[in-house]
Each structure stands twice: as C-alpha cells, then as structure tokens.
C-alpha cells in the first residue's frame, strides 16, 4: 500500500481564509465585516487578537504565491472578503477590492496554480447585520446571490473551482448556540435552525446561477465533517451514533447532496418546535441545486465518539480549548440523545483535537457510498506550537508525521474507489487562528508575528520541503508511518 500514487491531474493544494491572512481591514475601500466588530468584544479571542493586520497577505500576496510556486502547489484555495467587494454588502462595487483578487488570481495562474475560490468564509458585511440581522433574515439570500453572481461574471474563464460556504455547521453553531462567533448569540436554537435554512437557500440559489453562467465549472460547499464511531456495541450507544450523524453531519450534507433534510432529525426538531420553516419552493430549489453540485467539500480534522447521553447529562455548552493547554476541552452533547467523549485509543493535539488519520479514509468512503459524489479535501492540517531557531529553522517533524499518515489514508481511499479531486492542507502560511490567536500555527511557512506583532517575515519550515517532495512524486514519497 505504500507504493500508491495519486493521478497525474490530482490537485495538491493548500488553503487560507481572507480574515485570517489579509489584514488591510479598512484599506482601499473595504467595508467592515461582522468579525471586525466581534473581535472588539473583550474576552472573545486569545489575548484580544484581531485580523486588522493578520499576516499582511494583502500587501505580500506576490511573495506568498512565489513560495507556493516554489513548493509546486497545483491549487490554492482562498476566500474572498464579501465586504471588500461590496462594502455595504450590496449596491456599489468597490473596484479596488475586486482588482486585489483579480491580481491574486492572475498571479496564481501565472505560476500554473489553479485558483479555488471560497465565496463565504465567515466574514459577513457588518452593514447587512446592522440593516436586517444578517443571516437571520431571508433578505440575505438575494444579497449573497448578487455578490456571488458578480464574482462569477467578473472571473469567468479564470476560476474553475468554487466553494459556496465554508463550514456552515461551525459558523452557525458557534454564532447562535455557543456565542463564540458573531453574532454572539447563546442557545438561540430556533433561530439557529432558521439561519441554517437561509444559508442553505443562499448556497442552493448560488449553485443554480453558477450553472447557468458556467456549466462546465465546478461548485460545491465545504463541510466540517467529523465522522463518528459508536463507543461500543451497546444498542443505546449505537443509536446515539445514528442521532449524532443525523443532527451533526447529515443535516448539512443531505441538503447539499440530496436537497432534503434527514427525516428522523427533522421529525425530532418538529416535535421540539425547532424545525425551520420550509416552503414548497424551498424544497424545489434545494432539489435542483443538489442535482447540479459537482463535489462534496470536506474540511477534515478529527473524528467523534458517540455515547448515549441521559436527560440529565452534558449539554452543548462547555469550555472549548482555545489556549493550547491540553486537557481543558470539556465533553458536550444533547441530553437524551448523545455525548461525545474522548477517544481513548487516539492521541490529541495541544488543543485537544483527536488525531485520527484513518478517519479521513472513513470520511471519503462514507461520502462515496452515501452520496456518490467526487470529493475535494478543502482543509486538513495540524495546529501546533512551532519554534524558530536562532538559525531561522523550524523543525516541525510532528506536522510531517501528521500529513504523511493522513495522505497515506487518502491514497488508500482513492485505491478503494473514492474519487478525490484535490487535497488542500490548512494552511499555507501561519495565520490568525480565529479565537486561538497567532500561537496556534498551521502553515508550511512560518510568519514572524505573535499576539503583539512582528516583522511578518516568512520562513520555510521543514514541512515545506517535505510537501514539495510529496507533490513532485505524486505522493510516491509518502511512507505511511503512523
């Protein structure tokens, strides 16, 4: 199995998000986003970090793309900041913002790097939040479709691969259930499901417009997929896995791929008075879009364990490890259905994320069997404390071991019949890790900055040269060591 290779047209890539790397948050006509406001709330981020400067990719994109070209990347997945294109979320276009992305796309193409564009990676124009509540209002659907349509028309012929939404399950859960992301609502469960419905409509209508404009282009959504294992063969624990999958995984993927909500989960929410309002027109739009999406995007980091959770058990609300102090994550779940304890058979990162390379293969096989769709691994990576030596070297053998094991499992999945188009690591350079500040590093390229600032100089880590060889050999250099 260690002699496997990826097909010659496989897209070896890496990924980023606008808010996490660009900076220049008020330059060249950009409007404020919901994150620009949210990070000003004391205690929301590690050491009050913001993306106002981030890692200054806005001014250093040519340097970063040159490093990508040196590595040999075949694709670069990045997001566009909606408020850089439409400062008010709609209305007048900010041409300077469009030109920045046009230049970035052209720079990628110049180096034979396929641009893969994410339309929404969590940064909503604050003007739309102020006007009508952002995703809480159905008005946002048309505004999102208008924004997407403008970009499709502007970059037609240059960008083939598009992703509508990044991790819809994450930004809605942390935004309306745990108050950890904007708009900072806590346990607003009814609105949480209605917000998700609006996001689904924005996704679906965007897919339909895209296919009219670019029928040969490729479009899908990226889902933060955490495949699940039952704790054991105790029937109530096995049932907890079914409930977890329906409410935490298939609730999103079934809409993307089938155009409908999972029936058991919808029935459960109806009985609780939490189900979203779904019209016959909505169902038709969902179905038409599902018939036209091209791939399932997967952001894979970890698997989950499912165990029955009694009615007086743990809730969805607990402390999340955002400091890197191992062992501070708390168990969560839904009373009466499931909870997600730690997996005793697997190691974890300093942020208590389970390290499970075989879970990536599991995810691909499950998607292939359930949806029969091609797969784009739009994120996979290891957040860690990296140290730069006095000689400006970064020895991240732990990251190399992580990627080696995950890519090996991915190649097994392809060998077993899964159609995988791309593998994008998270991330190319170090960046702002949302709530975790700058100390949680993911990149192949070390950026000299921390919570207090820095020079922004770039340094290649050991993993940079390692991935360069992986790409050069089409995965032939992967050892499969775990």
TrEMBL record:
Name assigned to this protein: Glycoside hydrolase family 1 protein
Family: Belongs to the glycosyl hydrolase 1 family.
Gene Ontology cellular component list: cytosol
MF terms in GO: beta-glucosidase activity
PANTHER family, A to Z: ARYL-PHOSPHO-BETA-D-GLUCOSIDASE BGLC (PTHR10353:SF136), GLYCOSYL HYDROLASE (PTHR10353)
Family annotation (SUPFAM superfamilies): (Trans)glycosidases
Residues annotated as catalytic: 379
InterPro entries recorded: GH, GH_1_N_CS, Glyco_hydro_1, Glyco_hydro_1_AS
GO terms (BP aspect): carbohydrate catabolic process
Keyword Hydrolase belongs to the record: yes
Keywords: Glycosidase, Hydrolase
